[in-house]
Amino acid sequence: MTKLALGSHPFLLGFEGLERLVEKTAKSEAGGYPPYNIEQTSDTSYRITLAVAGFSDDDLSITVEDRQLVIRGRQDEAGETGMFLHRGIAARQFQRSFVLADGVDVSGASTENGLLHIDLVKSEPERRIQTIEIGKG
Q1: 2-16, 22-36, 51-65: lowest mean pLDDT where?
Q2: I need a surface site. Which of 5, 56, 65, 98 has the fewest CB within 10 A?
Q3: CA-to-CA separations, 21 to 78, 88, 89, in angstroms, rounded
Q4: Going from the N-terminus, what domains does the chain have, and what CATH number goes with each?
Q5: CA of 122: how far to CAs of 10, 75, 102, in Å?
Q6: Which of 3-7, 71-75, 92-96, 103-107 has the lowest mean pLDDT?
Q7: Per-residue pLDDT for 135 more than 70?
Q8: Across-strand partners of 124?
Q9: Are 122 and 41 in contact (CB under 8 A)?
């Protein structure tokens, strides 16, 4: 059986990057920290919620790089004093990425009760009709 690449299908003209995008998204799923939810809050909006207990707002950064939403968390262990008898809450850094479709933008972010909420909004593209003139060869 032959594997058919997404970008090679004759009806998908100009979608060569789609397969790379799918592979990139699959690689970013490796490792499950921190856990997250994605919910659709309306027809044109979404919310990503990450569990970031122990991280302050200053420990978190949110950027959009080439249509990729990147959330990073880094805690500073320098301020900790005392000797731990047991340390089950690790102060580890993380990076979680989500690929955004064209027309999807970040509208805001907030933290509440150890959860980071990132709100996204999808704008509807305007519909247009283009008539192509047929010229004589």
Answers
A1: 2-16
A2: 65
A3: 38, 36, 34
A4: 17-77+89-122 (2.60.40.790)
A5: 29, 32, 8
A6: 3-7
A7: yes
A8: none
A9: no
